[in-house]
Amino acid sequence: MRKIVAYLLTIIHYFLMSVLLIGFHPIQVIAYNLFGYEAHKKVVDLINYLFIKNLNTLFCWFTYHGFKDLPKNVPLIIISNHQSMHDIAPIAWAFRKHHPKFIAKKELGRHYPSVSYNLRKGGSVVIDRQNGSKAIKEILGLGKNMEKKNWSVCIFPEGTRSKTGELNEFKPAGFKTLLRAAPNALIVPMVIDGNYKLHKWGQFPLNIGIRIKYTALKPMHRGNLTEIELLEKIKNQIKQHLNQ
């Protein structure tokens, strides 16, 4: 019975998601071209909020912890675990006052209404994982913008989503490059707990009645740690918070 209800609610969820993606694409284009970055960002913030509310169609509910204590007007490097394609909108909404940007694979830079346009115009970067030198150049440019404009950048060192919620190995390349470009940035470990449960049956149907927690842990400076030591420390903090 639960799965039958999940089929019905997932159809509604995906329909509303499609309406949001297609409907807001021209609004983004108009906002960006006529009014600039700030207007475009307000539109994107609204989209992300509506994406989160759309998960209520699956009877999912959310809790947020630690975000009110984050310092403002400083660049942040957000290091998060990765559990679902539904991770992005809640992170973007929770960090909206910090102008969050993302490092995305090049396939997302085209052909996806609203998403692709925001990645290209909103300050994020799309990289070709097969072209390492160009990818590093793009990330360095993002890091410099982050320092200059007090943006935040969220990266997923696992590189791919965890299907079980268990933390995968962290890949250091993107983090090392970003930290080199923005050495004064504060580092914020971010914990996503529960999103993987949405995909109990894959992408269709999505699971229903899931509780999902988003937690920003205490920000830290690099200190005297190497990039690898720092990333390992962050990984251990996330694992501890997940009770793994």
Describe this structure in words.
The chain has 244 residues and is an alpha/beta fold. The protein has one domain (2-241): Glycerol-3-phosphate (1)-acyltransferase (3-Layer(aba) Sandwich). 44% of the residues lie in helices and 15% in strands. The protein is built from seven helices and seven strands; from the N terminus they run ααββαβαβαβαββα. It has helices at 2-35, 37-54, 88-94, 115-121, 132-149, 173-181, 227-241, and strands at residues 61-65, 76-80, 100-105, 125-127, 152-155, 186-193, 211-216. β3, α4 (115-121) and β4 (125-127) form a beta-alpha-beta unit.
How is the topology of this model organized?
Elements: H1 2-35, H2 37-54, E1 61-65, E2 76-80, H3 88-94, E3 100-105, H4 115-121, E4 125-127, H5 132-149, E5 152-155, H6 173-181, E6 186-193, E7 211-216, H7 227-241
Parallel strand pairs: 1-7, 2-5, 2-6, 3-4, 3-5
Antiparallel strand pairs: 6-7
Helix pairs in contact: 1-2, 1-4, 2-3, 5-6
| Low-confidence regions | none
The N- and C-terminal alpha carbons lie at a distance of 32 Å
Strand content: 15-25%
Task: Give the total of beta strands.
Answer: 7
CATH class: Alpha Beta
**How many whole angstroms does the radius of gyration measure?**
18 Å
Order of helices and strands: HHEEHEHEHEHEEH
Counting helices, strands and paired strands, the structural category is: alpha/beta
Count of DSSP H/I helices: 7
